[in-house]
Design brief:
It contains 15 helices and 8 strands. The protein is α/β, with parallel strands linked by helices.
Length: 332
């Protein structure tokens, strides 16, 4: 099978290594020509995924038409805010018959669309039957090193999900399938907001009780939004819900948790972003989900406070006090 991985960052490299290890012919597309040249020469991304060698059979190119040649499966391992522009590049290229795998976790700001919906909107050959999403607790730093990991592939077509499942699955990377692409995408996206909140709480010096409460009430928010948008509530007890939420909120690899940690320590959003090498998807997701929740009338108090901390420079301690002082209510 010929596969193309779009994105030469940490997750794209991890997927390329995984797929090549599974015997697939892999082409890795890096949009920046200079970065593609460096990856070809060094076979490693020293700043984003140090120590991980890209196997020599993996072709690396900045020419999209070359990367897509004979590709039967396309993995979009790029930041969510670049999915639409990348998809538009495919419009004039012949990729009919391919399977499209979204690996990004985010909600588009302007439209509030999920990433699979963006792919379908922009790529003429993309439909609900050949677009799936890969999600779950799967940090590139660990997947690339072969540490045991489980993930989920979700889509409307069981046959397409199983095709991607078989392409990815091995003894170190176990893949499940799900028909609930709405829930899987929302879980993977909104948990980044809660991870920022978890980092803020850590930066403020709070303890395990705080984190436990935050994750529980954060999952309630995710489920509330998911039900409103037609997701199966059980999905949020799975890998793309609880699994990804816990991992992202506690992991040293989590960019979103790190961003929140630095804000809790006293920095402003622009200062933290200036010092980060990789993208924290939760920043844009906080903006989009906050406005989406308001449009839908869905109560998401943690998301609202994270939004005000990030974009209105609200004092994090005041935000916590307001959360703790909300009107009393039943848990369920």
């Amino acid at each position: 099978m010929n596969v193309c991985v779009l994105g030469g960052g940490s997750w794209g490299i991890a997927l390329a290594v995984l797929l090549r290890g599974n015997g697939k012919a892999v082409s890795l597309w890096e949009f920046n020509e200079a970065d593609a040249d460096i990856l070809r020469a060094k076979r490693e991304h020293e700043s984003k995924l140090p120590g991980i060698r890209i196997p020599s059979p993996v072709s690396i190119t900045s020419a999209l038409e070359v990367a897509l040649r004979d590709a039967q499966m396309l993995f979009f391992a790029i930041p969510s805010h670049t999915i639409r522009s990348a998809a538009r590049k495919l419009e004039s290229l012949n990729v009919a018959g391919a399977v499209y795998v979204n690996c990004a976790k985010g909600i588009e700001l302007e439209t509030h669309l999920r990433m699979s919906e963006v792919l379908i909107a922009e790529i003429p050959a993309a439909t609900e039957s050949n677009v799936v999403t890969l999600s779950g607790p799967s940090h590139a730093e660990e997947v690339s090193r072969g540490l045991p990991t489980s993930a989920v592939v979700a889509g409307k077509s069981r046959e397409t999900c199983e095709l991607v499942q078989k392409a990815l699955n091995n003894e170190r990377f176990r893949v499940y399938t799900s028909p609930d692409i709405i829930g899987v995408e929302l879980g993977g996206s909104v948990k980044n907001i809660i991870a920022i909140a978890a980092g803020i709480c850590s930066g403020l010096g709070f303890g395990d009780n705080t984190t436990g409460a935050l994750l529980t009430r954060g999952l309630a928010e995710i489920s509330r939004l998911g039900r409103r948008l037609g997701a199966d509530p059980l999905t949020f007890a799975g890998l793309s819900g609880l699994g990804d939420l816990v991992t992202t909120c506690i992991s040293r690899h989590s960019r979103n948790r790190y961003l929140g940690l630095r804000i809790g320590e006293g920095l402003r959003l622009r200062e933290v972003l200036a010092e980060m090498v990789m993208v924290a998807e939760g920043v844009n997701t906080t903006n989009s989900v906050y406005h989406l929740s308001k449009n839908l009338g869905v109560e998401m108090p943690i998301t609202e406070q994270v939004y005000r901390i990030l974009f209105e420079e609200k004092d994090p301690r005041l935000a916590v006090r307001e959360l703790m002082g909300r009107d009393l209510k039943a848990e369920i």
